[in-house]
Write a structure and sequence with these properties.
heterodimer, A: 198 residues, alpha+beta, Alpha-Beta Plaits, two-stranded antiparallel sheet, 7 helices, 13% strand, B: 343 residues, mainly alpha, Fumarate Reductase Cytochrome B subunit, 11 helices, 5 strands, elongated
Chain lengths: 198, 343
């Protein structure tokens, strides 16, 4: 099985936010929730970079470690998913997540943040693959159809890569060798405890 | 001509667009949760992540979606919070609660129930009125539910979930969360009420030193003199008032996310909430024991509000003297009336 990862090549990202929009559209994500977002650091200054970030599907995921109801699980493709039927919306995964991935529908801040929602790597949830109930709770299950996440698939500059970690790492290395520079793989040290040396 | 107009146009544009932009920045005020920028322009991803993990900072920047909190790219502090929640809080909470239960069991096994040495007199004196008892039980009742649901959030995954399965556990934990959130209000009100009702009798004074030196008479049969509240009860009072305030404030920060603080503040609030709560639970276990099975006659104070006069004389000698004096003064002008306990 593959070890699925995301890699954002910040030397290519043009902050078009199409990944954010495509994700919302593909999964019909409710208002106020963005499973993916683009952050620009050093905006308007030397070293400006835009990075598309979502759940990184960590090795030894902090969200799963702190969940009071143990609602997280990791698939055979190393995708970190959660069961909304046993999620109580306590917010602990949000405190622990290094990437700000877990979000809560704002039906009411007081006492009921609602069930946590986050990037599923387009892999749905614990319900049967590509059923209506799965779509309502988690959105599309592209992985079960043999497709990769929509955000990376439609990225116009191919800055955002999704797929097996070794494969996308070798694509990125090849790019960096050809063009002679690269800022590295954002979040990899934090999520996978590895760095991408070129 | 054009050479003269262009600079003027440039100035006009700067005034038209530049100044409102500057004003907007002013109006918006400081953005909450701006990470520890600027970052080095040449730093690579893993250098930055390592640097921020070591300096407890955050990588973040500007975001175009209308959610300022999403401008945090990486916050390594989550790792520290995870360690606190999964290791520190589990150990501190486990040792505090189980340790206190162990101490109580050992105390009961060696000292047993503390009896009224002189036996019950059969006459009673009012210790707490209805308002005091109501405030106490509102605080106590909500505290017990808050404590159990709070402990469930930290320990339930390891202790209860394996016994009853994920669905049943999720259901009780969800209802526990609602109970925890809503009962925070009567608890907070109760802490305020108890503070107002009892603070005048809970100011520490010189007698408390003597009471503490005699360990409150817990290990012998002598009864150190005490006023309305002895030093042990004063400790319970201040633990309730100070601990309860800290727990309430930190709890409301968590119930209303982002109203007062950003994620770093919420992590800190949870740490304060968790540690103070388990320590309060340990203290209240001792309070519950000595107020019920641990001491003969003690429960009446909060039950009926009427305590046996002999119990009161042994545990609150100075308070009884005060009450008797007051009673004598009240009836002094009434011919034929006698003070309670004077016959």
């Amino acid at each position: 099985m593959a070890r699925m990862k995301f890699l954002c090549d910040s030397d290519r990202c043009i902050e078009c936010n199409a990944c954010v929009t495509a994700c919302k559209n593909e999964h019909e994500v409710p208002w106020g929730i963005n499973r993916r977002r683009v952050v620009t650091i050093n905006d308007g200054k030397p070293g400006e970079r835009s990075i598309s970030m979502a759940c990184m599907h960590c090795t030894d995921a902090p969200c799963a470690a702190v969940c009071p109801t143990n609602c997280f699980y990791t698939t055979a493709d190393a995708v970190v998913l959660h069961d909304k039927d046993t999620c109580i919306g306590c917010g602990y995964c949000f405190y622990a997540c290094p990437f700000g991935a877990p979000q809560y529908p704002r039906v009411g801040n007081f006492g009921s943040r609602g069930k946590m929602d986050k990037c599923t790597y387009c892999a749905g949830g614990p319900q049967a693959d590509n059923t209506g109930v799965e779509y309502v709770q988690y959105g599309a299950n592209r992985l079960a159809e043999g497709k990769l996440p929509i955000c990376a698939e439609m990225c116009s500059t191919k800055a955002l890569l999704a797929g097996d970690g070794d494969m996308i790492a070798s694509i990125y290395r090849e790019r960096v060798q050809r063009r002679g520079y690269g800022a590295g793989a954002w979040g990899w040290r934090t999520a996978y405890k590895e760095t991408l040396s070129v | 001509m054009i050479a003269r107009i262009l600079p003027a146009l440039a100035v006009a544009c700067a005034l038209a667009f530049g100044l409102p932009a500057a004003a907007q920045v002013q109006m918006g005020g400081p953005v909450v949760g701006v990470p520890t920028n600027p970052v080095s322009p040449t730093a690579t991803a893993d250098e930055l992540e390592l640097e921020k993990a070591l300096t407890r900072g955050r990588i973040g920047g500007r975001i175009s979606i209308p959610d300022e909190q999403a401008s945090n790219l990486v916050q390594p502090a989550g790792r520290d919070w995870r360690t606190f929640h999964n290791r520190t809080l589990t150990w501190v909470g486990g040792i505090a609660v189980l340790g206190m239960l162990g101490i109580i069991a050992m105390f009961y096994a060696t000292r047993g129930r503390i009896e009224i040495d002189a036996g019950r007199s059969g006459r009673t004196i009012q210790r707490f009125n209805l308002l005091e008892r109501s405030a106490h039980w509102m605080t106590a009742g909500s505290f017990v539910v808050l404590a159990l649901t709070g402990l469930n959030l930290t320990f339930g995954r390891w202790l209860i979930l394996p016994l009853i399965g994920p669905e049943a556990f999720a259901t009780i934990t969800l209802w526990g969360k609602y109970a925890h959130n809503y009962l925070s209000f009567p608890f907070t009100l109760g802490v305020v009420l108890l503070f107002l009702l009892w603070v005048k009798d809970n100011i520490p004074n010189g007698r408390d030193v003597g009471w503490l030196k005699a360990a409150g008479g817990l290990f012998g049969h002598d009864h150190p003199a005490a006023g309305r509240f002895n030093a042990g009860q004063k400790m319970v009072f201040w633990i309730t008032v100070i601990g309860g305030t800290l727990v309430a404030v930190s709890g409301y920060v968590l119930i209303f996310p982002f109203w007062a603080t950003d994620i770093a503040g919420q992590q800190l609030a949870h740490i304060v909430h968790g540690v103070i709560s388990v320590l309060m639970i340990a203290a209240m276990l001792g309070h519950i024991y000595i107020g019920s099975v641990g001491m003969e006659g003690a429960f009446d104070a909060m039950g009926s509000g009427q305590v046996d006069v002999n119990w009161a004389r042994e545990h609150h000698s100075l308070w009884v003297e005060d009450e008797m004096k007051k009673a004598r003064e009240t009836i002094a002008g009434t011919p034929g009336a006698r003070t309670q306990g004077a016959d």
